[in-house]
Amino acid sequence: MRSQYEPHRAATTDEPVRDRDRDGARARVLVVDDDPTVAEVVAGYLDRSGYAVDRADDGPTALGRARDRWPDLVVLDLMLPGMDGLEVCRRLREQGPVPVIMLTARGDEEDRVLGLEVGADDYVTKPFSPRELVLRVESVLRRSRPAAGGGHRLAAAGLSVDPDARRATKNGGELALTLREFDLLAFFLRHPGRAFGREDLMREVWGWDFGDLSTVTVHVRRLRGKVEDDPARPRLIQTVWGVGYRFEPGGAVD
């Protein structure tokens, strides 16, 4: 019986290399999944799309692989034996910044939100299209890299964002932001005083015309926790009821 993840013949080995690191080497993706069929198919698609792929089938092995050679991105299954994907993601974040795409077979929103809360940049629910996953990887990696030049420093309300260096500060202190949190803050700083719906933010920041809008809600909440003096009473990133969110440099509470 053909597996739902079995590669289609259309995926050939002569596909172009889409992503390379700053030294010209292939971008490295660590695939962590205890299902050998899923891991093999995902790794195969990524390899054919021009990525260097490492694989691990449990949390401790994944952390060891990351220590040996730090990946550019991690595709991480939520349900792993012994140490689940949430704990692996937490420990990876302790080692250093790295984009994470979470895989989950669960349909509960709570599980998806948990993955985003611990710092996952995106998630894909099983069963999924391997081609869609490759597109997600491309999108996340593209946004994770410093701009080629010409990115203007953004500053307001004690916050500063350098798009070229992918560096953000608050009152001179470094902010530990995930990929999406950084992009979200930069977008708000570029458009002060303007209200955006969650659909707008999904399209402009995530680059997707569709998706689970709770992703935006969770990232706004996490970003508030890092840039607001009192996240329970946000002054900078304000909720516009019935619309979405607005960045107010003046910090006046509605």
UniProtKB/TrEMBL annotation:
<dbReference type="InterPro" id="IPR001789">
    <property type="entry name" value="Sig_transdc_resp-reg_receiver"/>
</dbReference>
<dbReference type="GO" id="GO:0000156">
    <property type="term" value="F:phosphorelay response regulator activity"/>
</dbReference>
<dbReference type="InterPro" id="IPR001867">
    <property type="entry name" value="OmpR/PhoB-type_DNA-bd"/>
</dbReference>
<dbReference type="InterPro" id="IPR039420">
    <property type="entry name" value="WalR-like"/>
</dbReference>
<dbReference type="InterPro" id="IPR011006">
    <property type="entry name" value="CheY-like_superfamily"/>
</dbReference>
<dbReference type="GO" id="GO:0006355">
    <property type="term" value="P:regulation of DNA-templated transcription"/>
</dbReference>
<dbReference type="InterPro" id="IPR016032">
    <property type="entry name" value="Sig_transdc_resp-reg_C-effctor"/>
</dbReference>
<keyword id="KW-0804">Transcription</keyword>
<dbReference type="Pfam" id="PF00072">
    <property type="entry name" value="Response_reg"/>
</dbReference>
<feature type="domain" description="Response regulatory">
    <location>
        <begin position="28"/>
        <end position="141"/>
    </location>
</feature>
<feature type="modified residue" description="4-aspartylphosphate">
    <location>
        <position position="77"/>
    </location>
</feature>
<protein>
    <submittedName>
        <fullName>DNA-binding response OmpR family regulator</fullName>
    </submittedName>
</protein>
<dbReference type="GO" id="GO:0000976">
    <property type="term" value="F:transcription cis-regulatory region binding"/>
</dbReference>
<keyword id="KW-0805">Transcription regulation</keyword>
<dbReference type="GO" id="GO:0032993">
    <property type="term" value="C:protein-DNA complex"/>
</dbReference>
<dbReference type="InterPro" id="IPR036388">
    <property type="entry name" value="WH-like_DNA-bd_sf"/>
</dbReference>
<feature type="domain" description="OmpR/PhoB-type">
    <location>
        <begin position="151"/>
        <end position="249"/>
    </location>
</feature>
<keyword id="KW-0238">DNA-binding</keyword>
<feature type="region of interest" description="Disordered">
    <location>
        <begin position="1"/>
        <end position="22"/>
    </location>
</feature>
<dbReference type="GO" id="GO:0005829">
    <property type="term" value="C:cytosol"/>
</dbReference>
<feature type="DNA-binding region" description="OmpR/PhoB-type">
    <location>
        <begin position="151"/>
        <end position="249"/>
    </location>
</feature>
<keyword id="KW-0902">Two-component regulatory system</keyword>
<keyword id="KW-0597">Phosphoprotein</keyword>
<dbReference type="Pfam" id="PF00486">
    <property type="entry name" value="Trans_reg_C"/>
</dbReference>
